């Protein structure tokens, strides 16, 4: 697949959104973050070095949307910002975003997405026993993907075999799903998890898939 036309379409939408943006419009900022992230994923799939710029842009927009007055349970925004920064390998932003996410109270959130944000943040900061505890709490829920929780828990535990089984299941789930952010068919969660594993010293190749970069 040629991903450049997809990127160009998202770039035009983003630029149009910036022109129309009213300061403090948190929903518009979320949409801009979504489109920037989709543009970054398209470039990532194309093997283009410009992906990082768009992924960083997405993280900034999502953080701004929270600060502009997002509901306090809009945990998808910290999750998105952390995932985008992981894929961009933006270590300074990751450290700051992880600390911010924990300050928001993610580890004790009732929402599974809040707990997910906490697990990502704790893994980024190398607080592995705490990350494992939070990930284990996600494993017990029926309203959160078990394979994602397994992947986070096994990274925290440095269980390479368990991690490989879990992340392959995550990839498979993306291969069989119908809904993708901005219709960009990329297994971004698997890529972010793989980046966390790399940071943990557990780097392993992901299985070949149409929803992953070659």
Report on this model:
This protein has 214 residues and is mostly helical. The chain has one domain: Serine Threonine Protein Phosphatase 5, Tetratricopeptide repeat (Alpha Horseshoe). The chain has 10 helices and no strands. The radius of gyration is 16 Å and the shape is globular. The termini are close together. The mean pLDDT is 96.
- Sequence stretches where pLDDT stays below 50 over 5 or more residues: none
Biggest sheet details = none
Span from first to last CA?
Answer: 11 Å
Overall geometry = globular
Percent helix, as a range, is 55-70%
CATH class call:
Mainly Alpha
Oligomer status: single chain
Number of domains: 1
Strand content: under 5%
Rounded radius of gyration (Å):
16 Å
Looking at the overall shape, the CATH architecture is Alpha Horseshoe
The CATH topology, please?
Serine Threonine Protein Phosphatase 5, Tetratricopeptide repeat
Number of strands: 0
Write the SSE topology.
Elements: H1 4-20, H2 26-46, H3 51-67, H4 76-88, H5 91-103, H6 112-124, H7 128-139, H8 146-157, H9 160-175, H10 188-199
Helix pairs in contact: 1-2, 2-3, 3-4, 4-5, 4-6, 4-10, 5-6, 6-7, 6-8, 7-8, 8-9, 8-10, 9-10
